[in-house]
Amino acid sequence: MPSTHRVLRRMATVINTQGLHRGERFAAHGPTDALDICAIAYIVAEDRPAPAVFFNDEVASFELIEACERAMAAIRAISAALDTEPCDTNGGPDYIEHVSNWAATPPIGATQPPTTSEVIGRILRAADSTRQAENPRPGFTDAWGLCLTCRGHGTLLTDGEEIPYEELSPRRKQGHELGHRFYRHTSKPCPDCDGQDRVTDAAVSAYEASL
């Protein structure tokens, strides 16, 4: 069963490669089917293609997504990372409407909805918050020397010891060229990570290279 952090990270990858549906219902057919942000949370959490109801039945789509706890956990995490609060529906917060409307409609004072990069950035921020909530030592490195908060965006030097580029695996060399930094194991905090992912295109690319 994928963790909420994993679902959010995978959502960022899907949106980066396939974009977002921002129109009516939860999906639209095309050369590549476009999905709403909450529909993407569902297909990632369930690891399945988009069901037919996403294209033609909004009520059934709501019910299907709400019944998937892994998708709802990711949607609630994104909702918590937004600058607004969800509206209440039937006596409870409507997280699906909150997240879907945020990604699809222009904010007050703007003429365009958030860009794809902005949506990805907010999802990765939610992923980091989820990781930090689950991780008792945010900012420290794991057994491979990668920062538990930023996954290695830092320095090639740790305690004065550098990992030579030629010693990196082919995958890590690719990640390094995209801005992903690797350093030897240490119990000290990451020297360049303040616990907040400053999401850039290089950060998304480096994550994809690690898959």
Explain this structure to me?
The protein has helices spanning 4-18, 37-46, 53-56, 58-66, 69-81, 95-104, 116-134, 170-177, 201-209, and strands at residues 27-28, 34-35, 88-89, 92-93, 157-158, 161-162. The protein is globular. It has 211 residues and is mainly alpha-helical. The chain has a two-stranded antiparallel sheet. The protein has a two-stranded antiparallel ribbon with strand order 3-4. Strands 5-6 form a two-stranded antiparallel ribbon. Helices cover 46% and strands 6% of the residues. The model is unreliable at 153-160 and 186-204 (pLDDT under 50). The chain is built from nine helices and six strands.
Shape by Cα distribution: globular
Low-confidence spans: 153-160, 186-204
How far do the termini sit from each other?
A: 17 Å
Number of helices: 9
**Count of DSSP strands:** 6
Strand content: 5-15%
Helix percentage: 40-55%
- Oligomeric grouping of the chains: single chain
Q: Major sheet: order of its strands?
A: 1-2
Order of helical and strand elements: HEEHHHHEEHHEEHH
Q: What distinguishing features does this structure have?
A:
globular; 211 residues; single chain; two-stranded antiparallel ribbon; two-stranded antiparallel sheet
Question: Would you kindly provide a brief summary of this structure?
Answer:
This protein is mainly alpha-helical and 211 residues long. The chain has 9 helices and 6 strands; from the N terminus they run αββααααββααββαα.
